[in-house]
Amino acid sequence: MRPMLVLALGATLTIPVVAQPPPPRPRPYPVFESSSFQRAVERGTRTRTGRPGPRYWQQHAEYRLTAILDPAAKRLSGEGTVRYHNRSPDTLRTVIFHLHQDLFAPNAIRNTPTPVTGGMELGSLTVNGHELRAVQSDTGAGFERYGTGLYVRLPAPVVPGGSVEFGFSWGFTVPPDGAPREGTDGEVFFIAYWYPQLAVYDDISGWQDDPYQGTAEFYMGYADYDVALTVPEGWLIGATGTLQNPEQVLSPPARERLRRAADTRDVVHVVGEADRGPGRATARDSAGLTWRYRATAVRDFAFGVSDQYLWDATTATVGDQNSDGKADRTLIHTFYRPSRRAWAWEQSARYAQHSIEFLSTYLWPYPYPHATAVDGVVSCSGMEYPMITCIGGSRDTLSLYSVTVHELAHMWFPMQVGSDEKRYSWMDEGVTRYNQALGMREFFPNYDREAITRESYLEFARTGDEVELMRHGDQYPYDSRAFGVASYDKMATNMVTLRGMIGQQRFMAGLREYGRRWAGKHPAPWDLFHTFNEAAGQDLWWFWRTWWWETWTLDQAVAEVTVRGDSTTIVIEDRGLAPMPVRLAVRRPGGGTQRYEIPVEVWLSGARRYELTIPSPVASVEIDPEHLFPDIDRRNNLWRGI
Ligand SMILES: [Zn+2]
Prior knowledge:
The protein has twelve helices and 33 strands.
């Protein structure tokens, strides 16, 4: 309100009182492309359509690894070769590996507390059979360790179309429970990030060698694996890949039950409580048994090992991938300790079966030979690896199904749609949180995980501590929910919002098309945006800008409703900073509802208020009654007539 202005001449002039106009609003500016993405478009490896470019390429590798796990000493010793195929147009003089175990080295740079073990002990490193040595300078062939990276300067460059073979021997102490995503509690060993793993060299960034610091996850290339794991007799393994030699490592009855499980949708106890141990679950060999696995075109290889495990197995129907008119099946395995029955693990094979069947129908058929869940260390919480997930901590029915469907949904994102989880965590975690909610709704009717996720985001947004999605996963504030809220809850909510805006059909067309274009490849954020733009039939630049680069919140309000005889004027205010279309429901006395939409262009033009005049009578006016959009203050969304 403004005061009256009193003039000295005796005349009093009243200045009309006007409502303060709402403060001017920020208006979204166009979506940035990174300069490296622009260059990739110019070179023809990417496009601005969401499709890979005609000159898209990616690297490939073949790993042949052997490892011996000594549970008593908590030691893993490994050796093997990695053949790296250079399919890029570039001549490579240096090749970069990750030694993720160095997260646990005494002086490692970390952004999360971890146990300290000593990290990775590198025994030998050869290139095409020639031994290399550690070097300090950047001249000549040799290798250097920095952060969790291993930088190998080659004796001779690897040309486009060429390949190079590395040989390694290494060892490390398995970290105790408390290490992120892996470790041992003495009974179970969950072994991950256990071998020298190639960094990704891609068409956008070249080498992506961001170190493993604990918080941000991974970016991994596709490779074929041939792995031999030696563990003591009586110990069971659940692993990425297909077991090649069951006749050498499993007892005849266990093999017979496994064969039966491959033929049924019932859960078969491959190893029950009384069947555990050497000679009963496994073959006998006091020197240890070597389990051989193969996997093709996967991003990683991980395994869980215990002599306590029970083993359940069944199959899941995944649709007809080879179009022969018959449903294809994949194997489901779960491994857990008897004590975990109290945490609903007896149901774990059912949960995994439902998850894989639901996701295969809703997204596209599960492409791998099995899906496995193992009871692991507490600090696994829930962690995804190709074909296998490690699940830790106390659980109940709801929580075990929830984590199972979440981790198995990762078999689509990022296992198939291989995004960079470090730089764009939302591309796998947020999409997965969204897919998880749909699985949960089917398994527990009336359970609304989408609403819980939205409230988690909104509650944090109200604190003002929110951080935008487009930020490297290691650059969020320490000891804050900001990373989790952005990557998981806000991104999942953004997907619900997008679905509400463009409709279920276009949304699903966009999501599946994105998967079809990028399965087995490395999409960048712009590939996702462009694909959804195409599905939506419009350029949603303002939407991406608002919800990915900013922490603007949405607050649409019914500001005034004025009845003047036959007509009623409704004033809608956009009080937040996030522009969105307004979905208005006008209810009439005695029933009947009309829907109005105020297009987003009104707000994009800079306006804060919009007047709508409609015929009377009006019983109530409500913005977004279906809760499609994450309005931060819903108290001002509803007006009721007297
Ligand atoms: Zn996840």
